[in-house]
Write a structure and sequence with these properties.
Blueprint lengths: L1 H11 L58 E9 L5 E8 L3 E6 L7 E4 L2 H13 L4 E3 L10 E7 L2 E6 L5 E3 L1 H17 L8
Antiparallel strand pairs: 1-2, 1-6, 2-3, 3-4, 5-8, 6-7
């Protein structure tokens, strides 16, 4: 065995004869305290009961606006030519609108004017005086399309390119709102160009 010790000494060097590792400390005299048990994965919570179905809310019914009765305003876009083409949009006192067109591929349409358009339109039409001023000098260009505006069945304004005519401030505001309203309600229809 001494040969084995010598061989170990030669092969490993002085580390082979080093002090043995320290022994572990003596156990404590008190009884060991149990360590906290390892955490256990929580069981999945039972599925929550589905919330009760909401009470069926009464859906607002679409507003019915029959396109008939007294006329508030009418806009006629007219294109000269053979045949003459005419696109008419009527806004009724009851808040309805209707649109017709002489072109065979365009179908009539109707509906309700949104309150956001109708209220300001009514107010501006009440303020309009329809005072027309004619300039002494104006251009001479001619367009194939012109627009006629009627309020309560009375022609109040004809918009033509280079007519040399202009409206008073309140009437011009009413025409702008009328154009906006017609554009909003007939947005899906082809325009007369």
């Amino acid at each position: 065995m001494w040969k084995l010790a010598l061989l170990t000494l030669l092969a490993c060097g002085p580390a082979a004869v080093a002090d043995p590792p320290p022994s572990s400390p003596p156990p404590p005299s008190s009884p060991p305290v149990a360590a906290d048990p390892p955490p256990v994965a929580a069981e999945p919570a039972p599925p929550a009961a589905e919330p009760p179905a909401p009470e069926p809310a009464s859906q607002p019914q679409p507003q019915s606006c029959p396109a008939k009765g007294p006329i508030l305003a009418q806009v006629d876009r007219i294109k000269a030519g053979t045949p003459v083409q005419k696109q008419t949009t009527i806004i009724y006192e009851n808040g309805a609108w209707g649109s017709t067109d002489t072109r065979p591929d365009v179908k009539p349409d109707s509906g309700c004017v949104p309150d956001a358009d109708l209220s300001p339109l009514r107010d501006l039409l009440k303020k309009a005086t329809w005072k027309v001023t004619t300039a002494k000098i104006h251009c001479m260009a001619v367009s194939a399309i012109h627009t006629e505006y009627k309020v309560k069945d009375k022609l109040v304004w004809t918009a033509r390119l280079c007519s040399g005519q202009s409206l008073d401030k309140d009437s011009e505001a009413a025409i702008k709102q009328l154009d906006t309203t017609v554009e909003d309600v007939t947005a899906k229809q082809p325009k007369l160009n």
